[in-house]
């Protein structure tokens, strides 16, 4: 595992480690990052560097497995692993060998406390820059705090050039054991009765192997990517804390410490076959904050809830697939019915401001495809994909009502779905294909974005001539060597790396994969799935990818990319498609 590409973390932890280089002198260091949501703008907490005779080592190598990091130099070695989600251990060997922990203070009141006794000291790091706190101590070895503080007598919170560093070095036996523990809401005392380091490593290997092996086995070309993909989800999962009522798979450990309210659907879909409870929790972690009107927040973390946007209601379509793939309890089905019925009612009542029966996106961020060219002109926008999602919500509710023996509700949602389908065909079809329009003027938006084509999820609800034309345009204008571009590559607004104006994205790939199968287009569905899995196998789990070269773009690694890879590479229906080829 490349630590400069994939952060090292542990299932449930709010800490991650990555390898970075200092811009000024290219010196390498381990960076401890805070994964608490409030840290999003400044995640780096500590810098960790091997030292020999008190001086930083410049010539050392780092190797990483899924459960440990090893640092090696001429003078000694250090091995790192988690003993608990909120605690990791650094075991070092070598005479006069140790680590320097630079707390990198920014504000004038941000420094470390030296506590305990002279023979058993410990430190608490007050990392105010990301509102995190860490307990650091040494069950074996020596600890020293080196700190220079300039107190601002005015009591302001201005930045300062304070210095605060903790040095840990080996004892007389040439060994040290350092502990770094995340203490976000309270202070703790050191627990010096540490478990055996090798036993911890062995247990961690067993836990990770069990997590990986629970996923369906991928098709032969992608087997080697199973563990790396599973690790992205494993390492991005944080424990229930603060606003998170359940364990949650974060969008990434690099730039997006939180759960966004359509990202979580794709994590749930990937986890559903081997980790059903965790999959259901990915839905619950957002819907547990559903308000009295039925809206769900745009994103949630342990420390933040954002209501400014609400993301597309893709939930019913994904849950339909999940319920087909696995057995849900009656209790779970009742809960899903409550969530989706309230969400659907919310859209119908509050997101149709002009009362014409067609719901609106008020901003690009509400669509999930933030800067799609559909939003290049006037907003709000009435886009075919939004109405399609709501129809699929209604199909799910009809199915759930039938499963739960509620005939009246089954008929109600069936009728609503049929009525909204008629309205869809009446207002959105322009030149034979679904076309977005401005909400106020009702003028069609002649964008070359892929977004309106997501209404293909309606499958056989769309007349055959409309489906045929949509499919022809998809193949001609959007399908590239690497999958479906989110803006037609020949569009004047296409940009290779401009988010939703051209890149290939995991969630869109998965939605089209399922939509194409619903339309009976198994060959094309298989093709885009294989293109995506091949691209990810070559370039990694980036946030998105160039439609022209396949190279990874933006954040690394990204959870929904790994999730969609797991979903597509291990699908029974994909295997079935190979049989009917």
The shape, in one word, is elongated
As an assembly, this protein is single chain
Evaluate the radius of gyration: 26 Å
Number of strands: 29
Average pLDDT number:
95
Distance between the termini: 36 Å
Outline the structure in words.
With 581 residues, the chain is α+β, with helices and mostly antiparallel strands. It is 33% helix and 22% strand. It has 14 helices and 29 strands. It has an eight-stranded antiparallel sheet with strand order 5-6-7-8-15-12-11-10, covered by helices on one side. Strands 1, 2, 3, 4, 9, 13 and 14 form a seven-stranded antiparallel sheet that branches. It has a three-stranded antiparallel sheet with strand order 18-19-20, with no helix packed on it. A hairpin with a 2-residue loop joins strand 25 and strand 26. Helix 3 runs parallel beside helix 5 and helix 5 (315-325) crosses helix 8. The relative contact order is 0.09. Mean pLDDT is 95; it is low at 575-581.
What are the main properties of this structure?
581 residues; alpha+beta; eight-stranded antiparallel beta sheet; seven-stranded antiparallel beta sheet; 14 helices; 33% helix; disordered C terminus
Brief synopsis:
With 581 residues, this protein is of the alpha+beta class. Helix content is 33%, strand content 22%. The strands form 8 sheets. The protein has an 8-stranded antiparallel β-sheet, covered by helices on one side. Strands 1, 2, 3, 4, 9, 13 and 14 form a 7-stranded antiparallel β-sheet that branches.
């Amino acid at each position: 595992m490349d630590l400069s590409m994939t952060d090292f973390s542990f299932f449930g932890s709010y800490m991650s480690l990555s390898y970075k280089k200092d811009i000024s002198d290219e010196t390498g260091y381990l960076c401890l990052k805070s994964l608490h949501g409030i840290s999003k703008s400044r995640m780096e907490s500590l810098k960790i560097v091997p030292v020999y005779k008190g001086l930083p080592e410049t010539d050392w190598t780092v190797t990483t497995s899924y459960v440990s990091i090893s640092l090696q130099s001429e003078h000694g070695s250090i091995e790192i692993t988690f003993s608990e989600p909120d605690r990791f251990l650094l075991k070092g060997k070598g005479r006069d060998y140790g680590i320097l922990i630079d707390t990198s203070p920014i504000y004038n009141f941000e420094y470390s406390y030296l506590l305990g006794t002279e023979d058993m000291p410990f430190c608490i790091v007050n990392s105010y820059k990301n509102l995190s706190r860490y307990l650091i101590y040494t069950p074996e070895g020596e600890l020293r705090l080196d700190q220079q503080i300039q107190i601002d007598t005015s009591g302001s919170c201005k930045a300062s050039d304070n210095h605060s560093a903790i040095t840990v070095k080996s004892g007389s036996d040439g060994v040290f054991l350092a502990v770094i523990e995340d203490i976000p809401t309270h202070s703790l005392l050191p627990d010096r009765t540490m478990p055996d380091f090798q036993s911890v490593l062995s247990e961690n290997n067993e836990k990770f192997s069990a997590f990986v092996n629970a996923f369906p086995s991928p098709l032969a070309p992608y087997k080697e990517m199973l563990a790396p993909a599973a690790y992205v989800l494993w390492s991005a999962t944080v424990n229930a804390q603060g606003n998170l009522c359940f364990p949650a798979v974060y969008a990434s450990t690099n730039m997006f410490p939180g759960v966004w309210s359509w990202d979580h659907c794709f994590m749930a879909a990937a986890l559903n076959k081997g980790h059903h409870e965790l999959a259901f929790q990915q839905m619950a972690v957002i819907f547990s904050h559903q308000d009295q009107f039925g809206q769900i927040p745009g994103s949630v973390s342990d420390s933040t809830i954002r209501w400014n946007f609400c993301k597309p209601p893709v939930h019913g379509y994904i849950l339909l697939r999940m319920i087909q793939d696995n057995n849900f309890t009656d209790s779970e089905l009742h809960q899903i019915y409550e969530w989706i019925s309230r969400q659907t009612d919310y859209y119908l009542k509050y997101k149709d401001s002009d009362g014409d029966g067609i719901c609106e996106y008020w901003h690009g961020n509400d669509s999930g495809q933030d800067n799609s060219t559909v939003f290049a002109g006037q907003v709000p926008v009435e886009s075919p994909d939004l109405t399609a999602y709501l129809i699929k919500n209604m199909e799910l509710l009809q199915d759930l009502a039938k499963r739960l023996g509620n005939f009246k509700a089954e008929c109600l949602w069936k009728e609503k779905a049929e009525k909204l389908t008629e309205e869809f065909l009446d207002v959105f079809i322009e030149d034979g294909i679904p076309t977005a329009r401005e909400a106020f003027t009702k003028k069609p938006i002649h964008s070359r974005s892929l977004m309106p084509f997501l209404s293909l999820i309606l499958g056989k609800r769309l007349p055959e001539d409309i489906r045929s034309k949509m499919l022809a345009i998809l193949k001609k204008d959007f399908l590239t060597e690497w999958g479906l571009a989110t803006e037609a590559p020949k569009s004047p607004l296409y940009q290779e790396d401009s988010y939703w104006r051209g890149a290939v994205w995991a969630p869109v790939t998965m939605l089209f994969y399922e939509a194409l199968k619903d339309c009976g287009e198994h060959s094309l569905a298989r093709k885009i799935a294989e293109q995506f899995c091949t691209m990810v196998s070559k370039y990694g789990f980036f946030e998105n990818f160039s439609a022209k070269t396949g190279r990874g773009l933006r954040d690394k690694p990204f959870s929904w990319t790994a999730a969609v890879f797991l979903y597509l590479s291990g699908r029974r229906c994909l295997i079935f498609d190979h049989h009917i080829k």
